[in-house]
């Protein structure tokens, strides 16, 4: 079954609750694969250095931050 997700005016999409409940995480990784966008659940505690976390232009001048840096920030909260 296909589900159409509509982006908000800020470009955000919401994953349906039934999908989010299937996984024991609230963190997901998105990967561009040709003309396909893959969204997969990840365990934030086991994130490798190959991931970059994207921040909006207003938050980080359009640059991402390294996943390791995000994990440090999240653990310090």
Task: Write the topology of this structure.
Elements: H1 17-20, E1 27-33, E2 36-42, E3 52-53, H2 57-60, E4 65-66, H3 67-76
Structural summary, described in words:
The chain has three helices and four strands. The chain has 77 residues and is of the alpha+beta class. The strands form two sheets. Strands 1-2 form a two-stranded antiparallel ribbon. Strands 3-4 form a two-stranded antiparallel sheet.
Compact description:
The chain is 23% helix and 23% strand. It has helices spanning 17-20, 57-60, 67-76; strands at residues 27-33, 36-42, 52-53, 65-66. The strands form 2 sheets. The chain has a two-stranded antiparallel sheet. Strands 3-4 form a two-stranded antiparallel sheet.
Query: SSE order in H/E notation?
Result: HEEEHEH
Helix count, DSSP H or I runs of 4 or more residues: 3
Q: Describe the sheet with the most strands.
A: 2 strands, antiparallel
Q: For the record, give the distance between the C-alpha atoms at the N and C termini, rounded to a whole number.
A: 39 Å
Overall radius of gyration: 14 Å
The percent range for helix content is 10-25%
Content of β-strand: 15-25%
Total strand count, please?
A: 4
Q: Which shape, going by the Cα principal axes?
A: globular
Unreliable parts: none
**Spatial arrangement of strands, main beta sheet:** 1-2
Mean pLDDT: 77
Number of domain units: 1
* Category by helix and strand content: alpha+beta
